[in-house]
Amino acid sequence: MELFEAVLTRSSKRDFKDIPVPLDLIDKILTASLRAPSWSNSQPWEIAVSTGKTSDFIKQRIYKRASEDDPGSPDFPFPISWPEKQITNILEAGKHRYESLGISRDDGAKRKEVALYNYVFFGSQTAIFIYIDEDLGHWSVLDCGMLAQNILLCVHASGLGACPQAYLVRYPDILREAFKLPKRKRFILGISIGFYKKDSIINNIKTSRVKLKDAVTYYD
What we know:
4-stranded antiparallel beta sheet, NADH Oxidase
């Protein structure tokens, strides 16, 4: 797949088949993704790939916490407010998603069911978790963002689907237990990957992007 095509056609997938992703394919994706740039080539990222029994352990525990409305304690706190421009984009995307799924604004139970699907990797058996040491700062987080984008594009180019999820790192204590990591390791992001259901409505929802003229200013 040509690079521009990959960037323009990639979208987040939120409904997967219960099929394991071959480990050699994950290796291929991550080997390429690790070519991401970083400050002075510091390469601050660490990666945990969850499959099989480890995925079952994580899913069972984070789903339970989420279903009980436990807000968790993510290592990198979730935003509590957004500027007007960003909240408009967020609300527009949410409205479009729920309308496409036929879920009304006042159907709290159905909306919660959709949200909880995050915590079981959207039905996949595989998730990739990115974390860093606590001594690293925001520039290293930015570096990990470039790694994450590489992963998303390589997954897409491989014919699979992926979705970056803050929800998956909402309960980092569970992740550190699952991966046997010390408390000093801080989780940035989880990415569910797998063979997605091509006829699933939610996998075919297209979110809008700002127009070039609204995001870019040329200075001569």
